[in-house]
Structures are given as structure tokens and as C-alpha cells.
Amino acid sequence: MRSICIFCGANFNGDPVLKQAIETLADVMVSKKITLIYGGGNVGIMGLLADAVMGRGGEVIGVMPKFLIDKEVGHTGITKLHIVDNMHQRKQMMNDLCDGIMMLPGGIGTLEEFFEVLTWLQLGLHNHPVGILNVNGFYDLLLQQMDAMVEQRYLKPANRKLILTSADPIELVNLMDNIIIRPEEVWFKDQNFT
Asked: On the CB side of 60, how many CA atoms lie within 13 Å of its CA?
């Protein structure tokens, strides 16, 4: 991977374990010459991660809608900041610029971004590896819900296996580097569930 799109929070809860994970992720990205593609913010986890990568001499590309630039949350100290018209263009450009996708802790926006590009993967619109950095078990319940989707036949097991997960940034980047992406059609052929 030459670049990873990272979806993460515009807030930071002060968790020292998460802060260390951000630092470790920046270390591994810069050591492997992986460009950070992210939402372009200077706040929260977004700002911490961008600063950590830039501080190590790495490359950071942000993508932000104009209305957020107008709220003065755009990061002016990164390699490049693309300004787009809306949130959909933001996700599309971030996906187009990356070779892999990772989700760190965040809120509703983080989940929405991640699940849209995950849906695109299932539909064959891209073939980027996707990973969840599950620091301190932040996404445990979400992962359990995805397992329930498999059990209830709303998510195919092969597609669930495409969602790589680790609490360790080094392990997650290595998993993403080595996965072979083969999504299955999202529709179950056998619709007789009785």
C-alpha cells in the first residue's frame, strides 16, 4: 500500500492508549512510506494523526468540503488539502486516492464513511483492503453486530472476513498489506429460509 485512507473522529477523548496507537500508526506509515489520506481536519483524532505523520516527515493529503473549511477546521500544515463541494465528493476522492482504508475510533460520521466504502467493496466498486483499529475494544460491540449479521444471513461470511481488525496498528497494516480481496456477491441465492 502506498496510501491509506483513515476515517476517524473529529474529537479526541484523551485516552492515552489511543494516543499511543496514533503515534505507533504514524511510525509504521512513515517507515513504510505510506501516505495518509484523511478528512483534512485539524481537530480531534484527525488533527493528532495528521500532526504525528507530518512530524515524522510523512506525507498527508486531506480532503474537506468547503463548508467545513469555512468553519476553520481545515488543517493548513499538511502536504496538500483538497477542497470539494460536499461530503459525498469527499468520500469519493478519499477512496480514489487510497490503496487501503482504515477506521479508528470516532462517531456517527466515522461509521457512515467506513460503511459506505465497505458497501462499495462488497459491490465491487473498489478492491482496497479495509481494517478497523479496535483500540481498547472500542469497536467490540460493532464487530459483534457484524457477526450477528452473518448468523442471521444478512452478511456473507466471506465479506465479513474482508473486515480486518486489530488493536495493534503494526499488525493491522501488515494484515492489510497481505490480504487478497475477493468479495462475494452480496445477495444470497438461496432465499428459502424455512
From this structure: 27
135: nearest Cα among 174, 166, 171, 110: 166
- 194 Cβ neighbours under 8 A, 6+ residues apart: none
Cβ(63)–Cβ(84) below 8 Å? yes
Instruction: Report the alpha-carbon distance of residue 163 to residue 181 in Å, rounded.
Output: 10
Strand positions, DSSP E, 29-156: 35-38, 60-65, 80-84, 100-103, 130-133
Are 103 and 6 in contact, with CB atoms under 8 Å apart? yes
CB-CB contact of 104 with 133 (8 Å): yes
Express each pLDDT in 109-166 by its tens digit.
999 999 999 999 999 999 999 999 999 999 999 999 999 999 999 999 999 999 999 9
Is pTM beyond 0.85? Reply is: yes
Q: Which amino acid makes up residue 143?
A: L
Residue carrying C-alpha cell 487478497: 180
